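Hi Q.,

Before the meeting this afternoon, I wanted you to have the iron/sulfur cluster prediction in hand. No need to reply - just skim if you have a minute. The sequence and ligand are here:
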Amino acid sequence: MQEQQEKLTNKPRRCRVLGPVAYEYTAANTGSWRLERPDVDFSACIKCGTCEKYCPTNVITIKKDQKKCVEIDFNYCKGCGICANECPKKCIKMVPERSEG
Amino acid sequence: MHDIKHNSKGLIPHGMSACAGCGLELLIRKVMDVLGRDTIIIIPPGCAASFSGFGKETAIKVPGFQGNLENTAASAAGVRAALNAKGNTHTTVLGFAGDGGTVDIGLQSLSGALERRDRIVYICYDNEAYMNTGIQASSSTPYLAKTTTTPAGKPTARKNLMQIAIAHDIPYAATASIYNIADLQRKVKKAKDTDGPSLIHVHTPCPTGWRYDPSKTIEVARTAVQTGCWLLYEYQNGKATINYRPKELLPVENYIKLQGRFKGLTDEQIQEMQKYVIEDFNKCIKRLESVA
Ligand SMILES: Cc1ncc(C[n+]2csc(CCOP(=O)(O)OP(=O)(O)O)c2C)c(N)n1
Ligand code: SF4
Ligand code: SF4
Ligand code: SF4
Ligand SMILES: [Mg+2]
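Predicted structure with the ligand bound:
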């Protein structure tokens, strides 16, 4: 269960905020949902940015000047596979996620 | 204003609770990239509500609130009126509602705002059913699609939201799709700059409700337009422009075979659907050309 806000904020005379408010900007660890992870063949990548544009979680960053030119934040990548499906060079492969060891 | 506990590119956190491959998650990011921080967002119940917060946590960096399913446009109009009273003309007020919250239960509220010429941006993300409550059919569910309330396929065609908006002769109305982000963002910018009500109806595939593999969200959206199941056009100051007009439509089968909600259609039904899509497409084009 989500913790509700403790302080009452519905006394307009004392407080400038009405009602319960969501004020904490946070993120859930959606990377733990993943069954498959995108694996990029950097040598075939043309850095077009298509995968970055279509990623629903916005976790891809293209680094034009680096050898590992497609950076993916695996804390949040849900493993949907849109990047792999849309890459014009087909240089992203979805590989099964394995536990360590 | 917010207690920032997560660094994100853009105004939406990377880890939020939409399904993997959700078209709506992509859409709200692209919309907020254009509208920016100076925006107040009103979201009704539905899948988008997960962005408006849960308990004390929020999944969007701009202020806003979750209204009721039936009054998104009225709530947005109220916020606009309050801002106007304070002399604030710069803040964008965005109503961001699903198809159920727009074409069914929120329709009279939307109609009121369009009639009053309230300066709001209204975006309907259309996943073609009541997804958040378990895939019930809405009046935007397409012909023959299976949902939990139309297990044998929906017997009637969808309602045409754009024609309803155009009947109000609002300054700006457009359809868009998440596969064409440049077109979508251009339209959102136009809506933001419109002095009066603007509406954008966005085709937003949903892997969970349409039953296809999450990797195919963009492919499904693209095929919908290529087969004529979704049209891209806009209506500005009394003039209509068709944004994408293929020489020849692809067979509707290309679109339906991607999705589980159309599984099990007989050959006759597929033919019937093909006939309906082409007729509807031509009818719509003809109607638009008469106001071009
Ligand atoms: C008056 C009213 N009736 C029913 C509900 C229950 N309800 C909550 S979300 C929802 C589905 C909304 O569908 P849609 O607007 O298409 O958004 P989606 O879930 O598809 O994103 C429903 C029916 C409600 N909140 N209010
Ligand atoms: S879509 Fe493919 S080619 Fe383009 S940047 Fe991404 S990985 Fe590289
Ligand atoms: S698998 Fe999905 S969430 Fe992960 S990087 Fe690719 S598009 Fe983004
Ligand atoms: S049910 Fe559909 S619209 Fe709702 S979060 Fe899941 S994919 Fe997105
Ligand atoms: Mg819906």
